[in-house]
Amino acid sequence: MLHIAVVEDELECSSMIQEMLHQYELEYQIQMKITVFSDGSELMIQYKNNFDILLLDIEMPQLNGMEAAEQIRKMDEDVVIVFITNMGQYAIKGYEVEALDFIVKPLNYYTFSMRFTRAVGRVKKKEEKYICLTLTDGLKRLDINQIYYVEIQNRMLHYHTKEGEFIVRGTLKNVQEQLGTSNFVKCNHWYLVNLQYVSEIKKNIVVVAGEELEISRRNRTAFLSAMTDYMGQ
Question: What is the pTM assigned to this prediction?
């Protein structure tokens, strides 16, 4: 389910945005939770990093959308921000808060749906960068770009990451399926390596974030090929 915030001080425009979201929900079979705010200040009071997409009007009486976005970016780097405005001069400033897009008033559904589809795509892309680990003392939401390599020992997975080491029960095969769209490749039966942290390959050794891991004869050709493809991206 997508959690959407609509921040708009004009009641008529706010209602129109909500109607378009419901139409989009039916058309694309996407479940949404829509929360409505009448000003940026109201959004900030209740903000808890639980939104996927913010539809922010810029011109609002107390705290405008641009000011709210600047504050939000200090707390939340991931939320997708789309400004709704009739003032094109804000476009350049929007890049400073990493806004994805602008929807220009007066609104029409065709333009809205195209822009919103782009926002939904960005959310899905961001979701692909995280996995959830079930630890003995709770859950860990882990950014896969922070993973150096994954090691299997006695049916326990050791995630070696920038944040430290996390240990969970599982199989390397399942991990590889989870990270299949990313740059993770097996160098031997026990290690799944994130290619972005490979600094050196020498004979049958690959250096990953300063650690030397063995490249098995069985995996050598596929690993070197994957590394060559990655460097050529």
Answer: 0.58
What does each of the 233 residues of the chain score in pLDDT, given as a tens digit? 899 999 999 999 999 999 999 999 999 999 999 999 999 999 999 998 889 999 999 888 899 888 999 999 988 888 999 999 876 555 556 666 777 788 888 999 999 999 999 999 888 877 667 888 988 888 898 888 889 999 999 999 999 999 999 999 999 988 988 886 568 999 999 999 999 899 999 989 999 999 999 999 999 999 999 888 877 54
Instruction: Give the separation between CA 87 and CA 51, rounded to whole angstroms.
Output: 25
The answer to whether the peptide bond before residue 61 is cis (omega within 30 degrees of 0) is no
Half-sphere exposure of 126 (CA within 13 A, CB side): 16
Listed residue (182, 181, 190, 195) closest to 223, CA to CA: 195
Alpha carbon distance 189, 152 (integer Å):
8
N-term to C-term CA, the chain? 33
